[in-house]
Write a structure and sequence with these properties.
The protein has 416 residues and is of the alpha/beta class. The chain has 17 helices and eight strands.
Length: 416
């Protein structure tokens, strides 16, 4: 049911995320004005939203009739002033470049009506680095959508008002999504931050241990049941999105080494203009990528080692997020399950694996010392009390959850 405060939403940037976000808004019954400076990009929105809509139907998030109705509420616009003339809410999804985002928000701060709430869909730039580009700091926040998922992160900036946070929370609920109010600013919010744990292992697997992209994706798909692996997922969202995010992350000296490795993987693709599904080629060739063919999933003896290495990397990052009081155990698992349509999250996996087994695996991994030592030390400090109490997870009846009926299997766990 649409809110009284919001009738029209302006979307700046008609790429994959702009198309997804505007489609959800249209389905929610709002008028969505989709703006882009590129006429070519606007012309591609129809096919992009058709693909996204099909995926949402496959995931049973919406029906085909709801998708069709939602698309009728979307209007394309190339004139920036007309795009936001009646906007009650603005959502920006331009490339992950700080100077560009600041410039765009400065431009639209001058064009939007005084009452308009402005939001950024940034996936990795802290909202505090963008918000001082606008005058209306009390009506500015991050509202970050996850492609193909009902999860939406909401983070206020230093000046964001309580009324703004309330309106954004109710807006997200009104478009059939799950709002997560982040307790503190954190690059990558929670889901993206935890996902970095996978990046921390797949980069050295490819760069140092010469693993093939296809082998890593197959191992993930076979064990997780998901329709794409980590590299296939990059193709779907856009290689350039990950490339820009990598450049942003490298501003943090502590992460520079990791993301230099990611650059060596992504930069050749970007230089060739092979940006994934939207250009017809990335790690795979589209519209019929190899990972969608039955023969791709032929098992390999090393698949379990590859998968467990990725899982352990994610669990380690989840432990870091909890140790820094960015989120609780339950929040991490709930967010992962919503974003990935997974039956469990990192702490559910940890309980299933066995806390003692996990500690043994990260100390003697299949790929040498692939996990950061500081993460191993922090994890030991967090997990040793569980060992002392013999709370090892599923096999002992208790770990982070109590078994045989852990909280994350209760339907209420994923409700707002």
């Amino acid at each position: 049911m649409p809110m009284n405060e919001i009738k029209t939403v302006g979307f700046i940037g008609a790429g994959t995320m702009g198309c997804f976000n505007s489609l959800l808004t249209g389905i929610g019954g709002y008028e969505a004005i989709l703006f882009d400076v590129s006429e070519e990009t606007l012309l591609l929105t129809e096919i992009t939203q058709e693909i996204i809509g099909g995926a949402l139907v496959d995931r049973k998030m919406f029906t085909a009739a709801q998708i069709a109705e939602g698309r009728r509420h979307i209007h394309l616009e190339r004139d920036p002033a007309r795009a936001v003339a009646h906007a009650d809410l603005l959502s920006e999804s331009v490339p992950e470049k700080l100077d560009l985002k600041r410039s765009v928000h400065r431009q639209f701060d001058a064009l939007c009506p005084p009452h308009t709430i402005m939001t950024t869909n940034t996936s990795g730039i802290p909202v505090s680095e963008i918000e001082d580009a606008v005058q209306r700091g009390d009506r500015f926040a991050a509202m970050h959508f996850h492609l193909g998922s009902p999860l939406v992160d909401i983070v206020g900036g230093p000046r964001t008002g309580g009324q703004t946070m309330d309106i954004l929370t109710r807006f997200v609920k009104s478009i059939h999504c799950y709002p997560h109010i982040n307790r503190k600013e954190n690059p990558g919010y929670i889901y993206n931050a935890v996902s970095t744990g996978m990046t921390k292992v797949i980069v050295p697997m490819v760069v140092q241990y010469q693993e093939r992209v296809e082998d890593i994706d197959r191992a993930w798909m076979l064990n997780s049941g998901e329709g794409a692996g980590p590299f296939g997922a990059m193709d779907l969202l856009g290689i350039n999105v990950y490339y820009d995010g990598t450049l942003n992350a490298m501003r943090n000296p502590g992460k520079r080494k990791l993301f230099e490795g990611m650059l060596t993987i992504l930069q050749p693709l970007v230089e060739r203009g092979e940006l994934g599904m939207k250009t017809g080629k990335g790690f795979y060739t589209y519209p019929e990528p190899a990972y969608q063919k039955p023969e791709f999933l032929k098992p390999d003896p090393q698949d379990n080692d590859r998968y467990q290495t990725m899982i352990n990397g994610i669990i380690l990052e989840a432990l870091m997020v909890v140790s820094q009081d960015i989120a609780t155990v339950e929040e991490v698992d709930r967010i992962w399950m919503l974003a990935r349509y997974s039956e469990a999250g990192p702490f559910g996996w940890l309980d299933a694996k066995g806390i003692d087994c996990f500690l043994s695996e990260i100390k003697t991994p299949s790929y040498g010392q692939i996990h950061p030592m500081e993460q191993i030390s922090t994890s030991e400090a967090l997990l040793n009390p569980f060992l002392e109490r013999s709370e090892l997870g599923v096999k002992s009846g208790k770990g982070f959850y109590s078994y045989p009926d852990p909280l994350f299997r209760n339907p209420i766990f994923l409700t707002v």
